[in-house]
Amino acid sequence: DTAVSQTPKYLVTQMGNDKSIKCEQNLGHDTMYWYKQDSKKFLKIMFSYNNKELIINETVPNRFSPKSPDKAHLNLHINSLELGDSAVYFCASSRRGMKETQYFGPGTRLLVL
Amino acid sequence: QKEVEQNSGPLSVPEGAIASLNCTYSDRGSQSFFWYRQYSGKSPELIMSIYSNGDKEDGRFTAQLNKASQYVSLLIRDSQPSDSATYLCAVNVGGSNYKLTFGKGTLLTVNP
User: Fold this and answer.
1) Is B51 left (phi over 0), alpha (psi -120 to 50) or beta?
2) Residues A27-47 pLDDT 10s
């Protein structure tokens, strides 16, 4: 009965490769997010989707492309991976609203060699 | 640039003491404020939310908000070693997209 799940949990890959991370939530939320947490633990929003519509798109290289096939899923595809992409990527979900809590997935630890 | 500032710590307190964590934010239009706890290697989890000026208490945790000073704090009473974690302050600055901006977190260590 995991609320927000991500796969894979760990991802080790070579520079230049393309990889995807998947996220699913079973909370019935209408909004999903991708965050990047760097080695200094700074958590920064990358993208947000509401009802499959992109509503937040921060300054992120266009090598990163989110896709939301439905309200319960948000995937992140990364092309031409670089060393600086190494980080923990968290998916989160919430209902849309000022006071709504965001619930985070367990994270995907990406290491680019 | 809308910013959320926290002392990175580490903040070290003895078991049973009060831990005080502070956060300031730059956008006066901010409307919702959250404290998340993150254990090493784990994901952030919400421990407190506060929306209006004053104090909000939940068990050993008290959140305090002062919008005039653009300041939000978290007090942890009777600190336990299990409270040792990084505490992230998050601010929702409003607008239709309800984006959360996080501070860089304060590492708290509670010594037995």
Assistant:
1) alpha
2) 999 999 999 999 888 899 999
